[in-house]
Design goal:
Number of domains: 4
Strand order of the largest sheet: 12-11-13-10-14-15-9-16
Largest sheet: 8 strands, mixed
Number of strands: 22
CATH class of the largest domain: Alpha Beta
CATH architecture of the largest domain: 3-Layer(aba) Sandwich
CATH superfamily of the largest domain: P-loop containing nucleotide triphosphate hydrolases
Structural class: alpha/beta
Bound molecules: adenosine-5'-diphosphate, magnesium ion
Number of helices: 24
Shape: globular
Strand content: 15-25%
CATH topology of the largest domain: Rossmann fold
Length: about 700
C-alpha cells in the first residue's frame, strides 16, 4: 500500500486499472487533486428511504429491500434483454426491471440486500421501478442510492458509479489541500475551510452542506478574479501613459469616408475612448456591445489615433481566422491613411507594406519582429501567440483586446507587462478590452472591478430581427428547400455541426460526415465548403475568402466560426445538434448572420426530444439579447457551462457564476482590503497560490 498524496496519480489507487486511468486522463483528471476538484454538477436527493407500501407513482425514491427473484428474459418484439426482479421489504413487494444489462442478474442474487434509487411508475401490473440505480448493501454502506447523491459530468466512458467509488476512496485526502485563503477572510465571511468544502461538495449530508460548500468554492474563484483585477489597478495607479492627441480633423474625415453612418452609441463610445487617450494616465476601458453592434470600427478609430500620434498599437484576438479578417478589413478601412499594419499569428506573418521574401516561417517572423522593433510597423494585429514570442515593441501606446472574454485575465496582464518591459520609460499602454459577453453595466462594474465601461447598446440601422426556429426532423426537407430558394437569390448559408464523440475533439469527423451528406446527396448542384480546426491556415483562408466572395454557397463548419467572423451576405445559420451547445454560444453563432441587408434566419436542429431541452432551445426564439440567454443557460446547465469555453475571461469559474451578485461584491470588498491594509506579499500562502495559477495559465495560453 502506498502513501497517497494530492499528486499521486489516479492509477496508483488500489483497484484502478490502465483503462479507467486513461479514460479519466482524457477529461483532464490525472492525479488525486484533479479528481477532488472534479465537482458534481447535480445531486439526486434520496435522503429519505420509502417503504414499498408507501410508494406513489411518478416519484423519485430510494427503497431498501431483499431480492426475492431475479432472472433474464428476452423480449421477442424488441429483441432486448430484460432483467426482472422482485424486491421486498417488510411492507410489501415491487417489480424492478432493467433493460439490456444482463450482467445485473449475475451481480444480484436472491436474498441479497439491495438499495435502489430511481423513479417509480405504475403500469397494468402495479408499481414498477425501471432501470433504477442499484447497489448491494454490504456492511450497511451505500454511496449510490441513499442520501444526497452526486452526479458528475462524464464524457469518457466512465460511469457515475465508478467515479463516485473513486472519490469516496480518496475523499480523506482533501484534508491535505492547503487552505490559501487568509484566515481573517474565512472568519469574516463565515466560510467553510477548504478541505471541509471539498468533502461536502462531493458527499453532502444536507442541502445546507451543498450551499455552504458551494459558497466557499465560489468565493475562491471570485476572490481570485477580483484580486487579479485589483492588482492590475494597483499597478496602473502609479503608471504613466503617452498622451495621444485627438486630431479632430483627421478623425472626422475618416468617419465621413466610411460607407455607413456611425450609430449614436458608437459615437459616444468612440468619444469616451478618444478622451481617455488624451490623458497621461493609461486608459483601462471595456467596450461592451452585443454581437454585430459594430465594435470594430470604434477600435479602428483608436488605432488610427495612435498611428496619427506616431505610436504603435496592438490588436490581440483569440483566433487566427479573426486575426486574418481584421488584418484585411482594417487594412481596407485605413487604406487611405498610409498606415503600416502587420499580421502576426503562429502560422502566418505578413505586412501590408513590406514584401517579405524569406523562405522559412521563422525567418519571416524574425523579419517582422525587426520591423516592429525598429518602428517600421504601426499596427500589429495578432493572436495571443504574439505575446508569448520574443516580440519587442518600439513605442507601444495602445493595446486592444478583441473578444476579451476568450482570454484569461492573466493573458491580459502578460500583454500589458510585455508592453512595458519593452520600453525604456515606465509608461504603460492604454488598454481597451472589447467583449460581447452580455452583462448589464452594474454587474460589469462589479465584475471588472475597476475598468471604465463603454456600452454600444444599439444595433446599426436596418438590421432585421433574425427569425429563429427550432426545426423538427420531419421539417428537415422543407428547411433544405428553403435554403435552396435563398441560395438561388444569391444568399449564403452556414451549417454548424457539433462533435459526434469525445475522441473527435476538433470535430473533424463530425463535420466531414455532414459535409459529405450535403455535398453528395442533398445539394449536389451547389458549392459547399468545409471548415474545421485541423485545416492548414492556407486552406482555411482559401475557404473563408471564397465564402466571402460568394464562390461557396454553404459553409459547413465546426464551432471555429463562432467568434467575430463577418460575412454580411450570409442569411441562414443552421445548427445541427443544437442541444449540445450553450445558449450563449448559440447566440454567438446566430450573430454570424443578420449582418447585411437580407432577412436572416437561425434554424436549430436537435434529435433530443426531452421537453427540457426543447424549452431551453425555444428560449433562442424568444430572446434576442445575450444576457437573458446566459441567465436561462445558467438555470438549465449550471455555471460552468454558461459561457462554455468562452468563459475563459473569468478564470476557473466552475462553481461561481456571473450572477452571484452578492458574493462578487463580498469578494471584491475583501480583495480591495488586501491592497488597502497591507500588500499581497504578506499573505504567503495566497501569493503562492496566485503564482501557481499564473504559471499554469501562461502555459495553457
Ligand atoms: P462586433 O461588434 O460583433 O465586433 P463588427 O464590428 O464586426 O461587430 O460589425 C458588424 C458589421 O456591422 C460589420 O459588417 C460592420 O461593417 C457593420 N457596421 C458597423 N457599424 C455600422 C454602422 N454604424 N452602420 C452600418 N453598418 C455598420
Ligand atoms: Mg467583433
Amino acid at each position: 500500500m502506498i502513501m497517497l498524496t494530492l499528486d499521486t496519480e489516479i492509477i496508483k489507487i488500489a483497484g484502478v486499472g490502465q483503462t479507467i486511468a486513461k479514460r479519466l486522463e482524457k477529461i483532464g483528471l490525472k492525479n488525486l487533486e484533479n479528481l477532488l476538484y472534479h465537482f458534481p454538477f447535480h445531486y439526486d436527493d434520496f435522503s429519505k428511504e420509502t417503504k414499498i407500501k408507501q410508494l406513489k407513482a411518478n416519484t423519485q425514491v430510494n427503497i431498501v429491500g431483499q431480492i426475492e427473484l431475479i432472472q433474464n428474459k428476452r423480449s421477442a418484439r424488441k429483441r432486448m434483454n430484460i432483467t426482472e426482479a422482485l424486491v421486498s421489504d417488510e411492507s410489501g413487494q415491487i417489480k424492478v426491471i432493467w433493460f439490456n444489462q444482463p450482467f445485473i442478474a449475475k451481480n444480484l442474487k436472491p436474498s441479497d440486500n439491495v438499495s435502489l434509487a430511481g423513479k417509480v411508475e405504475h403500469d397494468f401490473s402495479g408499481f414498477v421501478m425501471k432501470s433504477p440505480v442499484y447497489e448491494k448493501i454490504i456492511l450497511g454502506q451505500t454511496i449510490h442510492t441513499q442520501g444526497i447523491i452526486p452526479n458528475y459530468h462524464l464524457t469518457a466512458n466512465i460511469t457515475q458509479k465508478q467515479i463516485r467509488f473513486l472519490i469516496t476512496k480518496i475523499l480523506k485526502q482533501a484534508e491535505k489541500i492547503p487552505d490559501w485563503l487568509p484566515e481573517q477572510i474565512i472568519k469574516n465571511q463565515k466560510l467553510l475551510s477548504l478541505p471541509d468544502a471539498i468533502e461536502k461538495i462531493h458527499f453532502p449530508k444536507t442541502q445546507n452542506d451543498i450551499n455552504q460548500a458551494r459558497r466557499r468554492l465560489a468565493f475562491n474563484e471570485l476572490f481570485l478574479v477580483q484580486l487579479q483585477s485589483q492588482s492590475i489597478k494597483h499597478e496602473l495607479k502609479s503608471a504613466q501613459a503617452e498622451k495621444l492627441k485627438f486630431k479632430e480633423k483627421k478623425i472626422k474625415d475618416f468617419v465621413a469616408s466610411l460607407p455607413f453612418k456611425l450609430t449614436n452609441a458608437q459615437k459616444k463610445s468612440a468619444w469616451e475612448i478618444l478622451q481617455d487617450l488624451e490623458k497621461n494616465k493609461p486608459m483601462a476601458r471595456m467596450l461592451e456591445g452585443d454581437v454585430g453592434s459594430g465594435k470594430t470600427i470604434v477600435a479602428v478609430m483608436a488605432l488610427l489615433v495612435a498611428s496619427l500620434n506616431k505610436t504603435q498599437s496592438v490588436l490581440m484576438v483569440p483566433t487566427e481566422i479573426l486575426a486574418k479578417q481584421h488584418f484585411a478589413s482594417i487594412g481596407e478601412l485605413l487604406a487611405r491613411q498610409n498606415i503600416k499594419i502587420c499580421l502576426l499569428t503562429n502560422s502566418e506573418q505578413k505586412t501590408n507594406t513590406h514584401d517579405i521574401k524569406e523562405k522559412s516561417k521563422a525567418k519571416t517572423k524574425q523579419k517582422i519582429f525587426e520591423l516592429i522593433k525598429n518602428n517600421k510597423i504601426d499596427i500589429i494585429i495578432g493572436t495571443h501567440a504574439l505575446i508569448q514570442e520574443k516580440l519587442e515593441f518600439n513605442n507601444l501606446a495602445l493595446a486592444i483586446i478583441d473578444e476579451q472574454h476568450r482570454f484569461g485575465v492573466d493573458q491580459r496582464k502578460i500583454l500589458i507587462e510585455k508592453a512595458r518591459n519593452n520600453k525604456n520609460d515606465k509608461n504603460s499602454p492604454h488598454l481597451l478590452s472589447m467583449t460581447a459577453t452580455p452583462i448589464p453595466r452594474s454587474l460589469a462594474l462589479t465584475i471588472y472591478g475597476d475598468l471604465d465601461i463603454s456600452i454600444i447598446n444599439e444595433m446599426p440601422p436596418g438590421r432585421k430581427k433574425i427569425i429563429t426556429r427550432v426545426v423538427s426532423e420531419e421539417n428537415r426537407e422543407k428547411a433544405y428547400e428553403f435554403i435552396k430558394k435563398l441560395i438561388s437569390k444569391k444568399q449564403q448559408i452556414f451549417i454548424i455541426c457539433p462533435l459526434i464523440d469525445e475522441s473527435d475533439k476538433l470535430g473533424v469527423k463530425s463535420v466531414k460526415k455532414e459535409y459529405e451528406k450535403l455535398d453528395k446527396k442533398i445539394f449536389p448542384n451547389l458549392k459547399i465548403g468545409l471548415l474545421h480546426g485541423r485545416l492548414k491556415l492556407k486552406e482555411k483562408d482559401k475557404i473563408m475568402t471564397d465564402f466571402l466572395k460568394n464562390k461557396i454557397n454553404i459553409l459547413v463548419s465546426t464551432s471555429v466560426v463562432e467568434v467575430g467572423v463577418d460575412i454580411p451576405n450570409a442569411s441562414v445559420m443552421m445548427i445541427e445538434g443544437a442541444d449540445r451547445f450553450g445558449l450563449a454560444q448559440l447566440h454567438q453563432f446566430r450573430g454570424r448572420v443578420g449582418r447585411g441587408k437580407h432577412q436572416s434566419y437561425c434554424l436549430l436542429f436537435t434529435d433530443n426530444d426531452n421537453p427540457k431541452t426543447l424549452t431551453r432551445l425555444s428560449a433562442m426564439a424568444k430572446h434576442t439579447d445575450g444576457f437573458s440567454l446566459a441567465k436561462i443557460d445558467l438555470q438549465h446547465r449550471g455555471p460552468g457551462e454558461v459561457y462554455g469555453t468562452a468563459q475563459k475571461g473569468f478564470p476557473k469559474l466552475k462553481v461561481a457564476s456571473l450572477f452571484d451578485y452578492e458574493l462578487i461584491k463580498v469578494a471584491k470588498h475583501e480583495a480591495k482590503n488586501i491592497f488597502k491594509n497591507s500588500d499581497l506579499n504578506k499573505f504567503v500562502k495566497l501569493k503562492e497560490k496566485i503564482n501557481l495559477l499564473e504559471k499554469s495559465d501562461y502555459l495553457r495560453g
